[in-house]
Design goal:
With 135 residues, the chain is mainly α. The chain has one domain (2-132). The protein is 83% helix and 0% strand. It has helices spanning 2-7, 10-40, 45-68, 75-104, 112-132. The protein starts with a helix and ends with a helix.
Length: 135
């Protein structure tokens, strides 16, 4: 019950809103670059997905740290933890989920990133709040 009160606390709701704004902005940048690499550069969808995910890494780390979670914690520790989550997400979301949605389920390579991101958003918020950016 105490955990539920924390989740519904006004500051947590504000964090969720800031996190979603940051996430949608990062995803907008990521998706625009993905389409450019996919359609204009002719890269394979997995390669394009991995490249843009790596490019958006820094933006997401810093904006989430500074604005979404307003963290003053140890940046080195946070960077290492964020990097580990990034590696996990790289494999699970940008390779496994993209292949699952596109190759197995036959969903367009232009739609799969939206489904992938929906999955990532859920687990990332909890990991950011309770592990990476916790005070």
């Amino acid at each position: 019950m105490e955990r539920l009160k924390k989740v519904l606390a006004p500051e947590t709701i504000k964090q969720i809103i800031r996190y979603l704004i940051t996430g949608f902005t990062a995803f907008g940048i990521e998706y625009a670059l993905y389409v450019m690499l996919l359609k204009w550069a002719g890269l394979h969808y997995i390669l394009a997905s991995v490249i843009v995910y790596a490019l958006v890494f820094w933006f997401s780390f810093l904006v989430n740290r500074i604005w979404s979670f307003k963290s003053k914690g140890n940046i080195k520790r946070q960077f290492i933890q964020y990097g580990a989550l990034f590696a996990f997400n790289l494999v699970v979301s940008n390779i496994f989920l993209m292949k699952l949605f596109t190759d197995v389920f036959g969903i367009s390579e232009l739609i799969s990133p939206f489904l992938k991101m929906a999955c990532v958003v859920c687990w990332n918020f909890l990991i950011y709040k309770y592990i990476i950016y916790k005070e």
